[in-house]
Every structure is written in structure tokens, then in C-alpha cells.
Amino acid sequence: MTKKPKMLFADEEGNIYDHPWLEMAGCNGSFMVQPDPVDLADLPEMSRLYYHPNCPPYGYDPEKKCFVLLTETKIGQKKIKCNAVSAFIQQGWVRQLLPSMDYSKKNYTLPMWAYSAVGFANEKYCVPAFEIDNNFRWAPDNFDDRILLPEVKKRISEFPCNRLVKHLERCALEYHCFAAKNFFFRRWEAPIPTSPVCNSGCLGCISLQPDGGCTAPQERISFVPYVHEITDPFIRHLNDARDAIISFGQGCEGEPIMQWKTISESVSAIRNKTGKGTINLNTNGSVPEGISAVCKSGLDSIRISINSARKEIYNRYYQPRGYCFEDVLESIRIAREHGVFTMINYLIFPGITDQETEIDAMMNLIKKTQPNLIHFKNLNIDPDFYLKSMEIPSEPGIGIKKAKNIIGKEYPELKFGYYNRTKQSFFP
């Protein structure tokens, strides 16, 4: 960056402007900071910008040497109300700062995206973020619906009475789920939702939200598929698809490990028919007995989600029902014991993830459970809502990238990423 980026703001119609002298600010948790120039990157191509009604932005005034709230300004002769601007960064990138804005007049809950600070410099948008993984298979230009529709009809005709295939049709065409589209294209990673119920009450659940909260972007599957509804189409996928992965545990369902008997039977049946491809499970890891059974049935990889390595922070977000944080740790350990490629899906949040107490807790978790890889995934949630639900830290964190580097230095064999892998690329 050759110069400090300027603050962005939007009018009430969503037109975005860069301020002539106020500089970009961001938040580490609830603490306003100026981004470190070394942490800034050009906004990745597939990112999106948002503006936030009734939430004026903070910027940094270099003359007064303080942060200031911009509630209104003049554009020409017209006085306008100012709204904050944020970015949703392309997959594979990790945000380091939240947008800096005043939430006090906000009378809504933000949709479940991962909002990042964003500024403008050298005629480009810029964000405090770093790329942690790159997989061309998830680029949006690979998912053209004009090509998809004939493939959907083809798969439906192949499995006309299969409820799971019909469910995935909705996921592909209505929710625009890339994984569901992969199933119909018969390539790469395809999803297998199995569970209409869950034993967590996650604050950021994307398939079920309590009345009055943020609207969930999709509905849960309403049935448990029969084993043959899983095996028939997905044996075909493993045999025929390029770089095939099939994944239990999707956004359009509850917690898959609650159906571990169905999943275990399905994985065994699939592996009796084909050794091709990669079978993966995305889970909260709440039922160690179920994790053990699925691992024994022929599972190749598992991804267990946590938002924190600290029990109290984990509980505030996941709100577990009938299990405890120690069960999750035991499941990670069991998966490694069975030789399954074990990943932690770490839900990253600036100001929480990069606290020194969190870093210490995560390194202790790694020492006890020995995972192969940690996914750094931006947590999709309203920042104000999340911070109020957690115990707000008394000081800012050290920075997400610094936290990741500390963990990586302590555990040099540990891998970091964002996407699930085929078994051929578990150990590159």
C-alpha cells in the first residue's frame, strides 16, 4: 500500500463513496484500530460489498489523531446520511478486522455473512485479510445455471423416486449451493444431508433460527434418507466424478452424527462397492461413540467444528444439548486414533480468536488431540450480536495472522486451509 486507505461510506440508496481525508478504521472485537499496512490486500475479485442502514461509520482523523463518527456529510450541495460499508471476502481468504461502525441505532439483525473492514486506496478497494487456501473448483464461474438445468433433469431421471436427490435439486436451484450443483454436474465435492435434528443451538445456525432472530437462509432436510437413497447416487458419484468427494454434514440439515447408524451403514455399503474417491464427514463431534463407528466403517476424512478452544466461549455459541465440550475433544482424538484425516473447522472471529488466552487454549487442544489440519473459516454472524453473546474481551487481540503463525511455529507439521481435500492431497 503506497498510502493509507480512505474510509468508505454509503448514502441511503447504497451508493458508495470514499471520504476525502478520513482514513479507514476497523475493529478487533470491540476495539477500534487502524489496519497495519502489511495486513492489507486488494479486495479479492469474488468478494461483495454491503452497506448498513442506521449504522454510521467510524474513520480515523489524521489531523485530530482520533477516531470520529461520520453521521452525515455533504456530496456537492446535498447533505446525506452516512452508512457504514463492509466487505464479504472471497472464500479462501481470512478477514483480520471487523467493520468499524455505530450499532446503537440498528433495529435489525444482520444476515449471516462474515463482515470485514474495507477501505479505498490507489483506486482499489482493500481489506485487512490474507489468503489461506486456493481451490479453483469453488470459483463462481464454474457454476453456470444455464449448463446446470439439463444436468438436474438428467440426474432426476436417473433416480426418479430418490427423496435425497429431490432435496438436492432444491439446494442447487433455489439455494444455489455449489456442492449440490457439483452433484448434478457429477464432479468434485458433493453433499449428503441426512439429519433433520440437531443437538446444538448455534447462534449462527444457517438452517434453523428462533422466531425474532435472523432469518435462516435455507430450510433443513425434513427426513432421514434410507441407506439406498444415499448409496445408489453416491456410489455413482465416487466412481464417475472428477476428484470426487462425498460429504455428510451440510448447511441444509441439523447434526449428522445424530444419524451415525445410517451413515455408518451407508459408508460400509459404499466401500463394499467402490474404493474410489473420498468420503468425508462434517460434524460437531458431539457423539464419540458415533464418530468411532463411522470411522470404522471406511471414512476417509472428518471435519469437526468449533468456534473456540475455550469451553466457556464454545458453550455460548454452540449451546450444546446432551453433550459437552470434552466429548468434542474426545471425538477429535478418536478420529486420529482410527487413522482418519482429521480437520478442525475453526470459526474465526477477530478479537476472539486472536486473544492470547485463546491461542494458548488452541495449542493445548492441538497437543491433546493431534489434528492433521485446521480450517480457518470466517464466522458468518452479525458482529454486534456475536460480541454481545460472548464475554467481550477487555483488550484487543494480537491479530489473526499472528495467531495462526504462532500456532504454526509451535506445530510445524500441522496444515492450514479452507477447503476439504481429496485423499490424494491429504499429505502433499
How many structural domains?
A: 2
The CATH architecture classification of the largest domain is: Alpha-Beta Barrel
CATH fold node name of the largest domain: TIM Barrel
Q: Strand portion, in percent? A: 25-35%
Q: Note the overall shape.
A: globular
Distance N to C terminus:
33 Å
Which structural class should the secondary elements be placed in?
Answer: alpha/beta
Which sequence of strands runs across the widest sheet?
17-18-19-20-21-22-23
- Largest sheet, described in full? 7 strands, parallel
Helix content: 25-40%
What does this protein structure show overall?
The longest helix is centred in the middle third of the chain and has 14 residues. With 428 residues, the protein is of the alpha/beta class. The chain has 11 helices and 23 strands. Helix 5 runs parallel beside helix 6. It folds into 2 domains: 126 residues, no CATH class; 290 residues, TIM Barrel (Alpha-Beta Barrel), CATH 3.20.20.70. The strands form 6 sheets. It has a 7-stranded parallel beta sheet with strand order 17-18-19-20-21-22-23. Strands 1, 2, 5, 12, 15 and 16 form a 6-stranded antiparallel beta sheet that branches.
